[in-house]
Design goal:
With about 140 residues, the protein is of the alpha+beta class. The protein contains 4 helices and 4 strands. The protein has helices at about 65-70, 75, 80-85, 125-135; strands at about 20-25, 40-45, 55-60, 90-95. It has a 4-stranded mixed beta sheet, with helices on one face. The radius of gyration is 15 Å and the shape is globular.
């Protein structure tokens, strides 16, 4: 993930590690099975081997469900992998993190990242949009 102008992972209160589930039908090359009919990867950078032709679903964890709280249980246990595999969807699981202003590791629903938190101008939503844009086959321009 490449940090954008006006925000960073730190200012957006996002972890530098997130997860992505890619059904095997969406892969451009062979990968190891995860047991969910695709792959589940923890990643902090796009390695170019992601989805080639599938739609994207973003799954936001709840408070106290960050990687530091529950590891990879959220992406592995939600059932979204099976649903995504059956529907040719890639799922990304960006991770918020605990900070002094966000002690429970919630996604911003009250303004701790700034006044635009509930709009597309909010730093977290800009970061998520950038993550989607960095997926192979999702680049615009």
């Amino acid at each position: 993930f490449i940090e954008g102008t006006g925000y960073s992972l730190e200012t957006a209160a996002l972890s530098d590690t997130g997860y992505m589930y890619v059904p095997t039908t969406c892969l451009g090359r062979e990968k190891t099975e995860s047991g969910m009919g695709g792959t589940l990867e923890g990643t902090s950078e796009n390695d170019g081997s992601g989805p080639s032709s599938c739609r994207v679903h973003v799954s936001f964890h709840g408070c106290e469900q960050t990687t530091s709280d529950i590891g990879d249980a959220f992406p592995r246990m939600t059932g979204l992998g099976q649903w995504a595999g059956a529907n040719d969807l890639t799922v990304i699981y960006p991770q918020a993190k605990r900070t002094a202003l966000n002690p429970k590791g919630c996604w911003d629903w009250w303004g701790y990242t700034g006044g635009d938190y509930a709009s597309q101008l909010g730093v977290q939503m800009q970061a998520v949009a950038r993550m989607i844009g960095e997926l192979p086959g999702m680049r615009n321009g």
